[in-house]
Amino acid sequence: MRKTLLLALALATSPVFAADYVQQAGSTLAFAGKYQGDVFTGRFPTFTTRLSFDPKDLGGARLDVAIPLAGATTGNADYDGELLGGSFFDVAKFPQARFSATRFRALGGNRYAADGTLSLRGASKPVTLEFTWAPGARPVLAGKATVSRLAFGVGGGDWADTTLIPDAIAISTRVVLAPAK
Fold first, then answer.
1. How far apart, in whole angstroms, are the C-alpha atoms of residue 19 and residue 141?
2. What is the CATH class of 17-179?
3. Among 4, 61, 139, 181, who pairs with 104 as Cys (CB 3.0-4.6 Å)?
């Protein structure tokens, strides 16, 4: 009886480890802004997400998102040509962006914040992703962030005029996940 009680106490006080997840088909990563007052949207069709997450142990949570920039598209050939060129993403010099978060906060209900670092065009700046978490066999992380494009040098030169394109760019994501193997 005593050994059983000690074993139960040891298991109850063992650290909880976050579950590891990988991105699945059906995930989306999009951006939106305005150009001369008209809304434009775009997406990154290929990106890779790895997540360690347990809502009961946010101290062990980690998020890493790799974003190949060459695939970015708005669906408008004129916009896309500029977007991939030197004034914006400059994909020849900076082929990938990365978001990494190691600090997570509960916001109430199934809402959370991931405080991390976005690395884009050679600059690394803090960005917070606020998201909801839908657990299950295929959990879903659905989140939003706002990024200052000028802080990363996106849209330099004549494009730095915020009357043409405001500084704030909205980012949204819906990541379908499965347990990592």
1. 14
2. mainly beta
3. 61
